[in-house]
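Morning run. Coffee first, then this:
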Amino acid sequence: MNTNDSLIEKNNRAKRMMLWFGMISMSMTFAGLTSAYVVSSSRTDWIEQIDLPFAFTLSTLILLCSSGTFFLALKSIKAQQIKRAQALLLATLTLAAAFVFFQFQGFGEIIEQGYYFTGAESSITTSYLYVLVLLHLAHLTGGIVIVLYVLYKTAKGKYSGGNTLGFELAVTFWHFLDLLWVYLFLFVSFYG
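And here it is:
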């Protein structure tokens, strides 16, 4: 191995490590919020159980499908099937947009049930729910930007000759966001 290969490998390891540091810090943020949710649940004004609208279940299934399409896009890019990878990336973006749409549908249904984020009708329970979901949506927006960037680089032919690190990191981050949502969805659904 020459010095240039050694530097490239060190750079790649550093990029992987930075991604893991970022994901761990995001995990700690959500762990802190869900811990605060548990502690706050002993308050007298706490709503025992909010029935989450079906739109949240549907959005969860959609997001899991998007992980599948993104993973298949990575397999396609490694096999140098560029057009297939691009189609799968577009499918991932479409599923992400559907996820966001159904998240807002779910919020609309929660509001129709009389649960508000702020104001006289709000409660600490609904405020936590909104913060958890909106914070995840903020991170997902970053993920969507990353998918768009990967799609752009794929169109420009940047992932060739085994140079797929950026694509792999994007897929890892997307899977992390999906797992994070599943955790939040299950936590809010079953804690109470």
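The domain at 3-42+53-190 is CATH 1.20.120.80 (Four Helix Bundle (Hemerythrin (Met), subunit A)). Good start to the day.
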